[in-house]
TrEMBL record:
<dbReference type="Pfam" id="PF00005">
    <property type="entry name" value="ABC_tran"/>
</dbReference>
<dbReference type="GO" id="GO:0005524">
    <property type="term" value="F:ATP binding"/>
</dbReference>
<dbReference type="InterPro" id="IPR017871">
    <property type="entry name" value="ABC_transporter-like_CS"/>
</dbReference>
<dbReference type="InterPro" id="IPR050153">
    <property type="entry name" value="Metal_Ion_Import_ABC"/>
</dbReference>
<protein>
    <submittedName>
        <fullName>Manganese ABC transporter ATP-binding protein</fullName>
    </submittedName>
</protein>
<comment type="similarity">
    <text>Belongs to the ABC transporter superfamily.</text>
</comment>
<dbReference type="InterPro" id="IPR003593">
    <property type="entry name" value="AAA+_ATPase"/>
</dbReference>
<feature type="domain" description="ABC transporter">
    <location>
        <begin position="2"/>
        <end position="234"/>
    </location>
</feature>
<dbReference type="InterPro" id="IPR027417">
    <property type="entry name" value="P-loop_NTPase"/>
</dbReference>
<keyword id="KW-0547">Nucleotide-binding</keyword>
<dbReference type="GO" id="GO:0016887">
    <property type="term" value="F:ATP hydrolysis activity"/>
</dbReference>
<keyword id="KW-0813">Transport</keyword>
<keyword id="KW-0067">ATP-binding</keyword>
<dbReference type="InterPro" id="IPR003439">
    <property type="entry name" value="ABC_transporter-like_ATP-bd"/>
</dbReference>
Length: 249
């Protein structure tokens, strides 16, 4: 179980996150939603220890998460990746095996098999020799998901992994999420869009500097919670009608 307790982050003298607390059970798919500037990426980075926190702690299986980072796979936002870096699809995914093989050792046969299987699962094995920068946005997202799979982590933190993907890739990604859940892994996914797609998630975290709601999609996506999070009452149909909307978070 991932436990976040009283997490507070200040950024350039402004409070980015205020007293955040929640628990995520193993084998769950959790969506992280909220308006632009709500602190979604900040929260993911704070969980990983990539930015300093002013208060709080992050525990995984009752131990500090920062002491167990080998058990965590992180997929950052597309804007944080240098797509011009000269590296092939195969080598991007093989980087996930570095903690297992070391920096100056050749990958083992087991690692090569894991990378091959990971690329096969996201239907990118045929493009393994392509430069990562030559791929479409959806293909690039698949490659980074393959890297997360190859890491064989127990906890996956993904920051807007559905950005720039087509419907086929979206369906494939959610299929893989379900497979990872069935293996007992925990996935926290920052969402770029929302609507009926939120029904895929077991739980949602609705964030805007503070945690506004945490629960099932139907519990979280109420008119009241949305109004608090976004500051205005958006004209949305009822969630049970799939909340098909053009709002972004």
């Amino acid at each position: 179980m991932l436990q976040v307790q009283h997490l507070t982050v200040n950024y350039r003298r402004l409070q980015a996150l205020d007293d955040i607390g929640f628990r995520l059970p193993s084998g769950s798919l959790v969506g992280l939603i909220g308006p632009n500037g709500a602190g979604k990426s900040t929260l993911i980075k704070a969980l990983l220890g990539l930015i300093p926190t002013q208060a709080g702690q992050v525990l995984y299986r009752n131990k500090p998460l920062k002491q167990q980072l080998r058990r965590v796979a992180y997929v950052p936002q597309r804007s944080q990746i240098d797509w011009d870096y000269p590296i092939t699809v195969w080598n991007v995914v093989m980087m996930a095996r570095t903690p297992h093989t070391g920096w100056f050792r050749s990958p083992s046969r087991q690692s090569r098999d894991i990378v091959r299987d990971s690329l096969q699962r996201v239907e990118m094995l045929d493009l393994r020799d392509r430069p990562i920068g030559s791929l479409s946005g959806g293909q690039q997202q698949r490659v980074f998901l393959a890297r997360a799979i190859a890491q064989q982590a127990d906890l996956l933190l993904l920051d807007e992994p559905l950005a720039a993907v087509d419907k086929k890739t979206e369906a494939l990604i959610f299929q893989i999420y379900d497979e990872l859940k069935a293996q007992g892994k925990t996935l926290l996914v920052s969402c770029h869009e929302w609507g009926g797609i939120l029904n895929h998630y077991d739980q949602l975290l609705l964030l805007n500097q503070r945690l506004i709601a945490h629960g099932s999609p139907t519990e979280v996506m109420t008119q009241k919670n949305i109004q608090v999070a976004y500051g205005i009452p958006p004209a949305l149909p009822h969630f049970h009608d799939s909340l098909e909307s053009n709002f972004f978070c």
